[in-house]
Specification:
By secondary structure, the protein is an alpha/beta fold. It is about 45% helix and about 10% strand.
Amino acid sequence: MVEWSRFHAVLFDLDGVLTDTASIHAAAWKEVFDGYLRRREGTEIVPFDPTHDYLTYVDGRPRYEGVDSFLRSRGITLPRGSPSDPPGDETVCGVGNLKNELVGRVLAEHPVSPYPGSLLLVHHLLDLGIQIAVVTSSANAKAVLAVAGLDDFFAVRVDGEVAASLSLRGKPHPDPYLEAARQLGVTPDSAVVIEDATSGVAAGRAGDFGLVIGVARHDNASELLAAGANLVVGDLGELV
């Protein structure tokens, strides 16, 4: 399906691509947003949908941008605040920090495993001598990779913390993927981007990467193709 010999590197998103942590993030977003909406509007709310709202407003985006995007979809505008805001403060950063706190708690209490097909592809690429990197908006990437037993496989990790330290624009801008390619010493046209989020697919397309592969785990193949994916699969094991 893919002629891997054409490429020098493969850049993986993390949540929903390598590990099933997308479900953890979606559940944490729901708890945070539903709690905030109830405090603001009372019991009669339209709750956060962990599939539609997650994929549309927060998946793949930097955390604070996801907060702002979802709340604006409900007609709510909060001040941005500061990354040092206490979790739960009525600012974009405060809401985002509460979500990050919840995710950290879940990761400490529950095991995380890679998708078998994703692990199969990782080993296949390494056997072929192709470099691999993780590119994710998550600030929890280091912990997730460690818990999933994947931390020794990737030569480069460009996550939310790295992006913030380098002042990189988040997905759908291509900056994090371009930085990963730069650190690996490869040109974008010789690298593959693998994403499950439309914002990540759009980032790969905007960066002129050689191939952008979408992973449709939510029956969203048409959305990934519309965002610019060259190819969509249901599981990465299909690519081995």
